[in-house]
Amino acid sequence: MDDDLIEYAPNIPDNVLELIFSYLKLQDLRNCALVCKSWYRFLCDENNEVWRAQCLQKVPPEAFKNDLLSVVPSYKAKLRAFYHAWNPFDCSRHVYIKPNGFTLHRNPVAQSTDGSRGKIGFKHGRHAWEVRWEGPLGTVAVVGIATKDAAIQCHGYYALLGADDQSWGWNLVDNLLLHNGDAHGIYPLLNNAPKYKVGERIRVILDCDDNTLSFEKNYEFLGVAFTDLPDKIFYPTVAAVYGNTEISMVYLGPPLDG
């Protein structure tokens, strides 16, 4: 970057910054935030015109046609969620990602369990994302995390997510926690815990610092599901068996405590 521009950076008016930044790529914007306090302050406004333009350029217009992104109110958060959404190149061949970029559709293929992972994995920090199931659950509907080594498709109707030592899941059908091919108890730990109803919001909370995985349902914290997670890179993952079911996932960022 030009030294003269850096010298006068703190004195550049916001309307001029907006014009300059509108021509930059995301990586350039991240670098600009490190130049001075003035630029950092400007780019911390996640709803300014720079982030609005970036969001509308990158996020498919189909994503704005319903309330899917209402849980991430700022333009920058919506953009971040898009870069964390389902990976069209890391899912079962019986699954496709819809034009909105956030929703997977499982084709009606018999005797198959099919999954999908998010684009970005996590090894450090605390992360939360929301999962919403649309359509019948069938006999298996598992939400959780997996490494890149976990299988993403298998023959038959099977609790694929949680079937090996590379994945951890909560089967919404029978409220069982699954890992390494074993059931690890009923979840949540409530007497006659209600089953998941289609359309309810599941929030997955991964704490890579504390090595735990937890869940919320309709904004109610259900408790820690898994502890002592290994030091690996984890991806948001689901596994489904019912034909034409659809599952949306929106990355939220660090979870809000309390």
From TrEMBL:
Any GO CC annotation of this UniProt entry: synapse
Q: How does the record describe its quaternary structure? A: Component of an E3 ubiquitin ligase complex composed of hiw and Fsn.
Check the record and name the SUPFAM superfamilies matching this protein.
Concanavalin A-like lectins/glucanases, F-box domain
The record's function comment reads: Required in the presynaptic motoneuron to down-regulate the levels of wnd and restrain synaptic terminal growth at the neuromuscular junction (NMJ).
Organism superkingdom:
Eukaryota
Q: Name one Pfam family in it.
A: F-box-like
Family from the record: Belongs to the FBXO45/Fsn family.
Q: Could you identify this protein by its name?
A: F-box/SPRY domain-containing protein 1
Which parts pass through the membrane? none
* Any one GO BP annotation for this protein: proteasome-mediated ubiquitin-dependent protein catabolic process
Location of the B30.2/SPRY domain: 64-256
Keyword annotations for this protein?
Answer: Neurogenesis, Synapse, Ubl conjugation pathway
Location of this chain's protein in the cell: Synapse
Q: In which pathway does it act?
A: Protein modification; protein ubiquitination
Q: Where is the signal peptide?
A: none
- Every copy of the F-box domain together lies at 6-54
Major site of localization recorded for this protein: other
